[in-house]
Amino acid sequence: MQLKTAPLAVALAGSLLTAPAMAEGLLHWHSNSLTYLYGKDYKIDAPIQQTVTFEHVNGWKYGDTFLFLDSIHFNGKGNDNGNDDSTFYGEFSPRLSFGKIFQRDLSFGPIKDVLVAMTYEFGEGDVETYMIGPGFDLDVPGFDYVSVNVYHRDTDGDRVGDGTWQVTPVWGYTLPVGNSDILIDGFIDWVVDNDSNSRGEEYHANLHINPQIKYDLGKAMNWGEKQLYVGIEYDYWSDKYGIENGGFVSENFVGKTDQNTFSAIVKAHF
């Protein structure tokens, strides 16, 4: 998972990878994981990066929760003119389910449930953002899960990007291959509008597409399924961080801001 100032996002990626159910209590299921990622050709930050990501996901009596924390290490020039060789970024994303709260079947058409989706973005520097809006769990044939969250974004202080809207679909799909499986999961963060502040700073609409393709190595080696994955991550981010590619900041300070890169990943669940 990448450093993002306009996320996820969220993603319930990994929500199908759960611990044994505890259906009688407040917590029904949960899963934790660690991911190592190595990639090149990143924009704005150092071009070569290594990231270690902790993820937690759970389902509980009244909804679900997703949390991740990235520890990002720069190979070569990092932030702050090369003075920083690492940084961190995370998101905390609880959702409240109307179906669970009111104990009603709210499904209609492709919609399985309606939720209140929230995300708190945090990290090093001025990145804090609070997001809230409607969420929808969808019934899409063949997929393990598909959800769409629509967020209203509120930045901390007078930072640009305040009052914008973000659409975040997430998905998971399992494809049997031989004696194992390939898991295709990921998210899209689409900030649909622009913003500017009193200082003349501008925030540009941006699109972040982040799928992962992972092979269940643990299942293939008879170590247990859904425990150890290896694979690749594709990361496309137009106008990264809301900085317009080819705009004033791009041309004079940070270079191109359209990111298009692949990374190798190893992911372990526990």
TrEMBL record:
Keywords: Signal. Residues 1-23 form the signal peptide. It comes from the Bacteria. GO terms for cellular component: cell outer membrane. InterPro entries: Channel_Tsx-like, Channel_Tsx-like_sf. Belongs to the nucleoside-specific channel-forming outer membrane porin (Tsx) (TC 1.B.10) family. This is Membrane protein.
